[in-house]
Amino acid sequence: MIFLWAFLVGGLICVIGQLLMDFAKLTPAHTMTALVVTGAVLDGLGLYEPLIDFAGAGATVPITSFGNSLVHGAMAEAETNGLIGVITGIFEVTSAGISAAIIFGFIAALIFKPKG
């Protein structure tokens, strides 16, 4: 049953993003920003963790999870290190994913040649 909920919740998040692009005429960058901010706000309100517990990968794979990670890391570090923890917490939680994306993107650019 967890696979069904993951599919439905993840699909709903993607549908919301597509509707923002189609009907609100937002660019992909604006849509992505709106989804990241939505994930951050939901985590700040304490609503995103229950969604992750309910839907699993359906809530952790979409871009809204990045906003959740930013706020979650900042709040956790702020409790232990104060105001400076807000900044360090953001980098601590998200640095592995961002670093991996940069490294693998660079490796792919070295291996493959663009057509043109």
TrEMBL record:
InterPro entries to which the protein is assigned, alphabetical: Spore_V_AE (IPR014204), SpoVA (IPR005562)
Transmembrane parts of this sequence: 83-112
Key words of the record: Membrane, Transmembrane, Transmembrane helix
Protein name: Stage V sporulation protein AEB
Organism: Alkalihalobacillus alcalophilus ATCC 27647 = CGMCC 1.3604
